[in-house]
Design a protein that fits this description.
With 332 residues, this protein is α/β, with parallel strands linked by helices. It has ten helices and ten strands. The chain is globular. Residues 235-246 have a biased composition (Low complexity).
């Protein structure tokens, strides 16, 4: 005899896992280079890789082309890391838009405008990272070195200062890594042409934006997947639920998604009604509505499963079909 309540519980568990998908908040942080449209290229690369559960956050908005581009960021032209550390700007922005991941490229103006030493900038980084972790002890920081400067447009001392600071960042960033709050170093200097890839010897043009997006892509994708491992972008994480007894009460779904399930059975041979209503995701502006289905024994289970296939994402369907197969085999 099958315990048809297992079917209800299995379906509920699978839908609840999808509906509980976490939207990962990503904050691009820095100065004017951060405000450029490499962010749009990066978002496109993520979506092309089927990573969509992200929300770029910040108090600033850009004007990058594309209706689907999330324009939010925390890139403030002319800003210095040393000023941010001294004035507490970052804490204000973190409180207003708490991120899970920070993409940081910051320090060019400290070298070029502020004439700050490498030691001064590293001390400022210490303060900023402490502020990040005070807000979120599990902050995931993707730490980029600085783009090269064209010495024909900017002082040679500035170009040399960038090289020196980058050498320090390469050692500094990994030293700040912890298990709880990872720090991943990204090298945007290597392979970037300060003449061909900039508009003015400093800020990226279209080719520069594409190069930056490529450098940030893998680290950003991996951060999102590490923070939200049960999202549809990681279908292998959606394991089929173990069968439960017919009369057992399914555990409470502890997610912000509202999933209501009702399983009714009068006997092992009776039909089991499963109502799955309004399985809403936490993804930005998205929701998934799942139609009411009635599953009975034998061939009707297969028919009901077929009707669901068109409505559910592939990874959800795979999990659902596994539950149907397991229930059907033991129904008689």
């Amino acid at each position: 005899m099958v315990k048809l309540g297992a079917l209800a519980f299995g379906l509920l568990t699978i839908v609840a896992q999808v509906s509980a998908q976490q939207t990962v908040k990503v904050m691009p942080f820095g100065a004017s280079i951060v405000s450029r449209c490499w962010r749009a290229n990066l978002q496109t690369k993520l979506r092309n890789d089927k990573v969509t559960n992200f929300d770029f956050v910040g108090s600033q908005t850009g004007s990058c082309a594309g209706a689907s581009i999330d324009q939010d960021h925390e890139g403030h032209p002319g800003s210095l890391a040393t000023d941010y550390a001294k004035n507490g700007n970052l804490t204000v922005w973190l409180n207003a838009n708490p991120p899970d991941v920070i993409l940081m490229l910051l320090g060019t103006n400290d070298v070029l405008i502020g004439k700050k030493s490498t030691g001064d900038v590293l001390k400022a980084y210490d303060v900023l990272i402490d502020q990040m972790r005070a807000k979120n002890p599990k902050m995931y920081l993707i730490f980029s070195n600085l783009l090269p400067l064209d010495p024909k447009r900017w002082p040679q001392s500035g170009a040399d200062g960038i090289v020196n600071l980058n050498a320090a960042i390469k050692q500094y960033a990994p030293s700040k890594n912890t298990r709880a709050s990872p720090v991943v170093f990204v090298d945007n200097f290597t392979g970037f042409d300060a003449v061909a890839d900039t508009t003015d010897g400093e800020h990226p043009n279209d080719s520069g934006n594409e190069k930056m997006a490529t450098k940030f892509f893998a680290a950003t994708r991996d951060a999102i997947k590490a923070i939200a491992p049960d999202s549809p972008e990681n279908p292998q994480a959606l394991a089929p639920a173990q069968a439960q007894g017919q009369n057992e009460t399914p555990p409470m779904v502890t997610s912000t998604a509202r999933v209501t399930a009702q399983a009714q059975s009068n006997s092992p041979a009776a039909a089991t009604s499963i109502v799955l209503m309004t399985a809403q995701t936490q993804a930005k502006g998205s929701a998934t509505s799942v139609a009411t289905t009635t599953a009975t024994q034998g061939s009707q289970q297969t028919s009901s499963a077929t009707s669901l296939r068109a409505a559910w994402p592939l990874n959800v369907w795979r999990g659902v079909s596994a539950v149907f197969r397991g229930s059907r085999q033991s129904v008689l």
